[in-house]
Automatic annotation (TrEMBL):
Pfam family, one: His_kinase
Domain Signal transduction histidine kinase internal region residue range list: 168-243
Domain of life: Bacteria
Protein name (Swiss-Prot/TrEMBL): Histidine kinase
Chain ranges passing through the membrane: 12-32, 52-69, 81-106, 126-144
Keyword Disulfide bond: no
The organism's taxonomic lineage, starting at the top: Bacteria, Pseudomonadati, Bacteroidota, Flavobacteriia, Flavobacteriales
GO molecular function: kinase activity
Keywords: Kinase, Membrane, Transferase, Transmembrane, Transmembrane helix
Transmembrane helix found in the keyword field: yes
Length: 357
């Protein structure tokens, strides 16, 4: 993200307008005591002209110092010398305007120190006053510009984080698709070896699921209704192979169009088949309960198991899903329990605090 010149111009114009109003107010108030015999209309008119005249010194000073601060690549010692030199020139310019132009031609008086004693072009007291007037302005403009740059930097960092997040999520999804396809093709391979009549039906179901994985899953979010439909299609593929499987599927969705990142929920179903049902030699079951109420998703899966699962592959898939949940849904909880004869997974997602994708 590059700095927008128009945005910078607007901010600086606003600064100079507000600064001008402030200085007019302060000098107009001061002129009541310095020129008590002047009518307020005359004092205001003179003050407006006076501050415009001082801008001939203040604006070049401000941007000369900013240029040195931002662009010049001298050593710090040399940069400080530049600052001092620029400020000295500005103080002399400020004094020249006040002593030779403003007092004699605007106020039509001779500049004095105490109302009686004439002031010279330069002395300690008047030079200090000019210095303080200029430094006050420099402090303000530097504060505005540094704040603007910090805000721009925050926007750039935020954009980089968002781009990195998108890349990471894309990589995580890319890890899921081959994993799912590999497992499903293994199932079809087993059926083909047995020359099962249902093999063509399974391939047709697989094409539907893969169409979802290729096209729908490419989106950042999809409706939860579509995601649940994909889970049902996946279960249909598995039920054709696992004749002794009992699947209890419940859903209670109050907002079917609720957006969710694709391919998260199905991973737990896939694990239930791969590391539970597929490794069991007896009657097996899977219970799935999906509820969405008031933007709170509760997702419960329980499946029977037998034997020792492939721990390494289980951890890879679970680590992948945990990472996606951390990135996308800060307000989530995930509990995975491994009992002697069954697994349980309970996932809760609060969509009230969802990362904007």
């Amino acid at each position: 993200m590059k700095s927008d010149p128009r945005s910078k111009l607007r901010i600086h114009l606003l600064f100079w307008i507000l600064y001008y109003i402030l200085e007019v107010y302060l000098d107009f108030y001061w002129s009541r005591y310095q020129f008590p015999d002047f009518k307020w209309q005359i004092r205001l008119q003179n003050t407006l002209i006076l501050e415009l005249g001082y801008f001939l010194v203040k604006i070049p000073l401000a941007y000369a110092l900013l240029y040195v601060y931002e662009k010049v690549r001298f050593k710090e010692f040399l940069k400080y010398l530049c600052y001092i030199f620029i400020v000295i020139i500005a103080v002399l310019g400020h004094r020249f305007l006040a002593h030779t132009i403003i007092y004699p031609y605007i106020y039509n008086v001779t500049e004095t120190l105490d109302g009686k004693q004439p002031s010279g072009f330069i002395n300690g007291y008047v030079a200090f006053n000019s210095f303080m007037d200029l430094i006050f302005m420099v402090g303000l403009i530097f504060g505005v510009e540094i704040t603007r740059q910090k805000n721009l930097l925050k926007e750039q960092i935020s954009q980089l984080k968002s781009e990195k997040l998108d890349q990471e999520l894309t990589m995580l999804k890319a890890q899921i698709n081959p994993h799912f396809l590999f497992n499903t093709l293994n199932n079809i391979y087993g059926m083909a070896l047995k020359k099962a009549d249902e093999t063509p039906d399974v391939i047709l179901q697989l094409s539907k699921v893969m169409r979802y994985n290729i096209y729908e899953a490419a989106e950042k979010t999809i409706s939860i209704a579509k995601d649940i439909e994909n889970i049902k299609d996946f279960i249909q593929i598995q039920k054709i192979r696992h004749r002794q499987l009992t699947v209890n599927f419940k859903e209670d969705i109050d907002h079917p169009s609720q957006e969710i990142s694709p391919l998260i929920l199905i991973q737990f179903v896939e694990n239930a088949f791969k590391h539970g049902v597929s490794e069991s030699l007896r009657d097996t079951f899977i219970t799935i309960d999906i509820q969405l109420r008031n933007k709170i998703l509760t997702y419960f899966i329980e499946n029977s198991k037998e034997g020792t699962p492939h721990e390494h592959s289980t951890k890879i898939g679970l680590k992948n899903i945990r990472r996606q949940l951390e990135l996308l849904y800060p307000l989530h909880t995930l509990a995975v329990e491994d009992y002697n004869d069954h697994y349980t997974v309970k996932l809760t997602i609060d969509f009230h605090d969802t990362l904007s994708l």
